[in-house]
Structure of Carboxylesterase type B domain-containing protein:
Amino acid sequence: MQLRHEFTTQAQKTFERLSFRKVSSGVYRTMVFAAEGTTLTDVHRFCHDECTRNTCCDGFVLNQNVLNGGTIMCGLLSYPDMLLCSEADWDVSGLAKANRICGAGVTYNKLQKQGQNINQLFLTLYLILSHHIDAVKETFVALDSSAVVVDSERDIPSLQYWIFKHQFSAQEAQLWCLKRCEEEELCHVADVRDESSVYFTCALYPDTQVCGAYDKPLRQACSPVLPQQPHTSLTVPVLFPQRKSMCLLCVCTRFRECERRCDEDPCCRGIGYVRDTQSPGSDLLCLTLNSFGIQTCGEGERTTWRVQDCTPSKVETGVYPLGWYEKPEPKAELTSVFIPAHGTLQGEAVTTLLGSDRKTVRQFLGVPYARPPIRALRFAPPQLAEWSVTLSSCLQPGAVESSATSEDCLYLNIFVPSGIVRSAAVLVFFHNPSGEASNDTPSLLDGSYLAAVGNIVVVTVNTRVAAFGFLSTGSTALPGNAGLQDQIAALKWVQENIEAFGGDPRLVTVGAERSGADVASLHLTSPSSRGLFHRMLLMGGSVFSPASVLSVSIAQGQAEALARELGCPPSSDPEQLGSCLRAAPAQDLNAAQTKLLSVSGPLQAWGPVVDGVSVQGKPSMALMNAGFHRADLLLGSSAEDGLISRAKRIKNFEELQGRADSKTAFYEALSNSLGGDDANAFVKAAATWFYSMQHSPSPAGYNVFSQALNNATSELQCLQKVFISIDLFHIVQNVLNLYFSSPIYTQYPIMTNVLKIKPRNI
């Protein structure tokens, strides 16, 4: 049963009511109202106004049902991919049960109420069908076909595409063609031709005008040259939008005035400061250029081999400052945010590609949230930050000394998309990129892309890991958990300052992966983390990991083994042991812990301990006793997660152990590192295969293995990056953007196919 409600069209000039009742995807915000407190008309107007104000909104869905006393839901749409359940669909009433996505067309009968499961009273869709084509057309103007010179003999560069009619209408084909022209830097003319019963042809051409040609006076208009007569053609604005006579000013002042005009015009690509010798009085002209077209006939030495017609120009450009000038590329836009108690933070605006679209994201990189944990502050809890501008990734096992890694690493990065509304959702991701990350090879997590896709504020945080973050003797001298306290310090910084960037401190989601997820999961039970976050996203780790919390005895044994490896004198005094470890160079300490991890197995790593402060007991007991914070939680895991990076770093084991001639010892260490006796059979088979080839135990033989392992893991590493990028994309788009202020209650759609792509037993 459907109750038809009619609405006036006075306030719906840009929306069109469709015959479809469902959408496959695209709902990014829902608002639910109690039926007794409002009317369908009021909710429709509210939904219409919300979508009008939001630049990302392409339409909305309106739904009324009788559940829970009756509710009316408004769902805002952005880029819906498929519309379903048209009113014009054929009726299968009585043929089968309602097992289709649109139901079986069951109708309501007052005399036979039994068996009716109809809850829906009203459901329809409204879309801005002309929004995208109108927005794209704003950057183009119609090309006057009478002004086009057709020269079929001329070889004009072009790009051609076939757009099939069974997939696209004529309007959609034109939109696609114009968007493609926008993406091509050299595209100046887009021509959509309908010459086939099967497809449309989209042809893109560069600027073929030769304005200011050598064989014509400058004042004479130049026509574009195309190989055939255009059909439906649009072009970017004219080449010379401004032509200003400069006869009343001196030469230098005229030139500066011409430059200023171009600087003030965001579309200006350059200027022509020329004298037209055939105009009355030989006026000086300032021409602002939107495009340079095709450059021919340079002013250098000419030879008889020229193909173009390069007869002497009627335009005088040879005497300085006369000539053609290209506007320099604009410097990256700087933005600033004032941080209370610290000062002004300078950022940079960058453009992020989202498929065929572009979005500006403001980046604030290398923001310190704690003092550098070096010298006396090594292994100590984080201290209040002092301003700095250096961004470094935290040292971790296997990393070598480089500009990309440092013990001074307690920094965070903030990514804010343009046009974001105030009080936006915030994702705080605890992420320590590997030592291989650099400016040329960026780390796995792209905060600017996540911010642009999810339209949220993204904060990526570096924290101390391994021995630097979790070395402990169970004493007050070395209590441990410094890495966990780094995370708490970063969350407190976000609570205090994220509003300055447009984020809402009440809508914070904590995210982490692998061992970082093990540590981050402890915030669910830590009293120090209460109120610092509201949702949690854990990938490849959780509070249930056997390595999430270590016993004091294991932690003490690890600290003593590290001290022995570094040559510290035997001592039962934690103060003396701590002094020795703090005095060791960071790279020596890192090499020592890498060596120990190589032979200890996958679960014998440094981790949090019960310290009575940030970790007051075993997480399992806290969960059993309901001693955890109420928060939405999303978990994901992957078999054999982390073996790729571990396998790449174990290659240097023979050098660290000083016994490069012992193939058996190397195999034992490799086997332990990949899981020991309980390792997956697939993993052990891979290691056994290499040694079954009877490779030489010499250093040269290990070099062969090293190269083979590099080749094997490089492809897996690329796949791993793709998998995790896909995971993060689904999470941001489907989960993080579900924050909203509902008048009644929060309603979440059912999550399906999230984290659906994972590596298999790598």
User: Anything to note?
Assistant: Residues 158 and 205 are 5 Å apart (CA to CA). The chain has five domains: 16-129, 133-235, 242-298+309-326, 335-636, 638-762. The chain has a mean pLDDT of 70.
